[in-house]
């Protein structure tokens, strides 16, 4: 019996009560004492893959590369056999890494579908506004799909993809990577086991971190909701999905407040210039100096597609800061994304949730409080503490992981198994539930703009 099976059984509580030092133990220690399987990701439905799943990578940027790297680490399970990207350097890098023949390297994703189907599946990691067309083309061509979130930048497009997925019967896995982080997976297990009773309410916070906000949503390609998608969708569809998943009930109503408070022209310091490279008089004291972030500290430079020769990288970055949006002053952009917002949610089972997205913080890592009828949980993406109301005993769990909680390749593993077995139930989320979590975000944005309470219906 696995830990996940045992923890859901009534016997677990009797064992827990017999452990006098339970307050000092984590779940792995509990599993060890009980002689159980301690891997929360253990899935007895997974099978040995006799022939690797073949996939086409459409969009070889940062996220697409991460998903495709699963093939490099697990070539017996997944093989990348083609790439489509309008950037020659990314195509070249991907082709070299995955040994892709020149005939299967495409500048335009449309060229992939001129040919008859030549792989099992497609990984779509293009910019948000370019998800819908390749996804529909892939479905029509008979491919299964791994689709980077958000599904699409508009409600109409999300519903269209859902409709086409149902019509074709193909597998569409949406990249809800946080579901595959050990932190949220453990939370889900203990909640479903009833260890805090019924969920009464949830408080969840996503601290974006001030530099991350400036990079992605002020200077970056998600800075304008009309060019990309509302930030509640582009950044926080992870969170609407996680809240929906933990509560395990359809949402009924959403209500949102938020605005762009700081990153606008009115707050530009005296002496600042259009670009950080234009002799800005406050550059050395600005928390958002592009020279400091990208050139001196060399952070988030993946957006520049740096040359492989390290001696050339410095001059290359400086040139990018003089010509690209990443070198512009954060107070002089065409951004419109809110830098803070709050969303209230009412679910059909009566649970309420309050979500807060905050840019003006010095840290990252989501914060979660879950209030139940028998106990509560306080967590921060690396650890959580469960307290039982009756006994006052506490159980803790902790594990340091990467920015997405270590979930990227676990998600790909489940998706590969789903494609190999042709069983969409092996995915953590169905396309229907994935779309519902997006509708929560769209409803929140309408509420923010119109000062309304939005009824959510799939």
From TrEMBL:
Residue stretches making up the Gfo/Idh/MocA-like oxidoreductase N-terminal domain:
56-175
Which SUPFAM superfamilies does the UniProt entry name for this protein? Glyceraldehyde-3-phosphate dehydrogenase-like, C-terminal domain, NAD(P)-binding Rossmann-fold domains
**InterPro entries xref list:** Gfo/Idh/MocA-like_OxRdtase_C, Gfo/Idh/MocA-like_OxRdtase_N, Gfo/Idh/MocA_Oxidoreductases, NAD(P)-bd_dom_sf
Gfo/Idh/MocA-like oxidoreductase C-terminal domain: residues covered: 188-450
| GO molecular function per UniProt | nucleotide binding
Highest taxon of source: Bacteria
Output the Pfam families linked to this UniProt entry. Answer: GFO_IDH_MocA, GFO_IDH_MocA_C
Name of the featured protein = Gfo/Idh/MocA family oxidoreductase
Question: Which organism does this sequence originate in?
Answer: Lacibacter sediminis
């Amino acid at each position: 019996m696995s830990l996940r099976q045992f923890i859901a059984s009534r016997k677990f509580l009797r064992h827990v009560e017999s452990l006098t030092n339970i307050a000092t133990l984590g779940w792995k220690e509990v599993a060890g004492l009980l002689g159980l399987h301690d891997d929360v990701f253990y899935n007895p439905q997974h099978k040995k893959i006799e022939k690797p799943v073949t996939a086409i990578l459409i969009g070889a940027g940062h996220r697409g590369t991460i998903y495709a790297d699963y093939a490099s680490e697990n070539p017996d399970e997944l093989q990348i056999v083609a790439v489509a990207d309008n950037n020659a350097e990314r195509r070249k890098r991907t082709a070299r890494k995955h040994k892709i023949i020149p005939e299967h390297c495409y500048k335009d994703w449309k060229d992939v579908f001129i040919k008859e189907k030549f792989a099992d599946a497609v990984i779509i990691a293009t910019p948000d506004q370019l998800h819908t067309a390749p996804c529909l083309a892939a479905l029509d061509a008979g491919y299964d799909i791994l689709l980077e979130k958000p599904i699409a930048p508009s409600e109409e497009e999300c519903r269209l993809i859902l409709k086409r997925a149902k019509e074709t019967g193909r597998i569409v896995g949406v990249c809800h990577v946080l579901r595959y982080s050990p932190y949220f997976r453990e939370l889900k297990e203990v909640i479903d086991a009833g260890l805090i009773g019924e969920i009464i309410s949830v408080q969840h916070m996503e601290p974006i971190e001030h530099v991350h906000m400036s990079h992605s949503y002020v200077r970056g390609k998600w800075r304008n909701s009309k060019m990309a998608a509302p930030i509640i969708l582009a950044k926080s569809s992870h969170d609407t999905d996680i809240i929906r998943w933990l509560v395990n009930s359809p949402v009924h109503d959403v209500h949102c407040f938020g605005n762009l408070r700081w990153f606008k022209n009115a707050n530009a310091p005296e002496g600042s210039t259009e670009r950080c490279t234009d002799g800005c008089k406050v550059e050395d004291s600005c928390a958002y100096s592009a020279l400091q972030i990208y050139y001196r500290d060399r952070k988030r430079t993946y957006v520049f597609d740096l040359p492989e020769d390290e001696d050339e990288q410095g001059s290359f970055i400086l040139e990018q800061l003089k010509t690209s949006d990443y070198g512009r002053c954060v107070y002089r952009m065409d951004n419109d994304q809110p830098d803070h917002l709050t969303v209230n949610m009412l679910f059909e089972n009566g649970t309420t949730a309050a979500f807060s997205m905050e840019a003006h913080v010095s840290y990252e890592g989501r914060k979660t409080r879950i209030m139940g009828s028998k106990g509560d949980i306080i967590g921060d993406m690396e650890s959580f503490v469960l307290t039982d109301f009756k006994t006052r005993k506490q159980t803790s769990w902790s594990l340091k992981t990467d920015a997405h909680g270590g979930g990227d390749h676990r998600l790909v593993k489940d998706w590969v198994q789903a494609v190999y077995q042709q069983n969409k139930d092996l995915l953590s989320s169905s396309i229907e539930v994935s779309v519902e979590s997006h509708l929560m975000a769209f409803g929140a944005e309408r509420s923010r703009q119109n000062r309304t309470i939005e009824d959510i219906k799939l």
